[in-house]
Amino acid sequence: MSATADPEALTIVRLANFVTPVSGGLRTALRHLGAGYRAAGHRPVLIVPGERRSAEETEQGLVVTLPGPVLPASGGYRLLTDRRAVAAELTRLSPDRLEVSDRTTLRWTGAWARRHGVRSVMVSHESATGVLRTRGVPGPLASAAADRLNTATARAYDSVLCTTDWAAAEFRRIGTPNLARAPLGVDLDAMRPLPPTERAVERARYAAPEEALLVLCSRLSAEKRPERAIEALAALRAQRLPAVLVVAGTGPLRQRLAARAARLGLPVRFLGHLAGRGALARLLGCADVVLAPGPVETFGLAAMEALACGTPVVASRSSALPGLIGLAGLSAADTGAGFAYAVRELLERPEGVRRAAARAQAEQYGWPAAVTAFLAAHGLRNDGTADGGRDGRARHRA
């Protein structure tokens, strides 16, 4: 912590698993929220797992990495499994607020917060029911297991925060009294439409003028259903629509997907992880359609960034995205044929109309509004004060 920090600022410690240097939506959301908390006059600290311990001051505040093992078959995700080390770090930091982004392995931190008089928020970034169903658990069993998990989560924390109504539905199902809603956001400055000439030059890197350029920007893991993009491309080409697919992202399924595309003779280009936001914005901005096949996406940051870049989105109708993309895209059945049908329908719209609609939809989701809503879930205002007044360091008592 800076020795010159405001003595009345609150320390907001955030804990998150499943964050790596090449992960997407969660890492981006944490960065923007931390920067927003800092701009509001608070002291944000992010604790994530890594190979070794480190601490670094960044634009989002202090980022602390604690050693954590790699989760098998996850493509590099690590977990904060050493409770003693995490508890010691929390005690050292003495937070005024605790924000946790993992309702399973980190749920014990709710009890830690209560013992220490710290107000706590659990952020639910996904639907537990949906995740279980993608792993083959039958619907009724998945719902019952999710209800038990979510009941325990709601009891452990002062607030449960969901980023969409879709994600909140399973908590409403069990009558969660301490449920809060706050949207995530999209960087409308970094992610914006390309000028027509620049878009044409960028597009030419991937597709001929007569080809439809499809883009998948996703972690290549089972719950994201990236194979649906391959299936959609195959269906479109079988219908004699010249289309190509560019995949941005990495994950445990990459080799399998590349092998499948090669076996089917499909024009698929795998770019891997795009490190620069500018490179991602250019790719999303030159695409004709961005595909979001994940059936358990809640906010779907990559899809919202595509809209901000003026590109329409075809999303799984099982996810939260249809309610977020509005008329700037289409929802599709969770099949390759379903996605292909939606792509064709989108491409029939005049390009100028569909690109303008995409940007207009994204402009409803700026980060300042998201930061304000997240701070409200912590009982804080955007001016650095607590909702009880200027005594921002007063601890919450359960």
Overall geometry comes to globular
Looking at the overall shape, the CATH architecture of the largest domain is 3-Layer(aba) Sandwich
Major sheet: arrangement of strands: 3-4-2-1-5-6-7-8
Please indicate the percent range of residues in DSSP E strands (runs of 2 or more).
Answer: 15-25%
Number of helices: 15
Q: CATH first level of the largest domain: which class?
A: Alpha Beta
Q: Compute the gyration radius: what is it? A: 21 Å
In angstroms, what separates the terminal alpha carbons? Answer: 27 Å
- Going by helix content, strand content and strand pairing, the class is alpha/beta
Mean pLDDT over the full residue set? 91
What portion of residues is helical?
A: 25-40%
- Sketch the topology as an H/E string, one letter per element: EHEEEHEHEHHEHEHEHEHEHEHEHEHHH
Unreliable stretches (pLDDT < 50, length at least 5) are 1-5, 388-398
For the report, how would you describe the main beta sheet?
A: 8 strands, mixed
The name of the CATH superfamily of the largest domain reads: Glycogen Phosphorylase B
Number of strands: 14
Question: How many separate domains make up the residues?
Answer: 2
CATH topology of the largest domain: Rossmann fold
Summarize the structure.
The protein has 15 helices and 14 strands. By secondary structure, the protein is α/β, with parallel strands linked by helices. α1 packs across α15 (367-377), α8 crosses α13 (336-347) and α11 packs across α14.
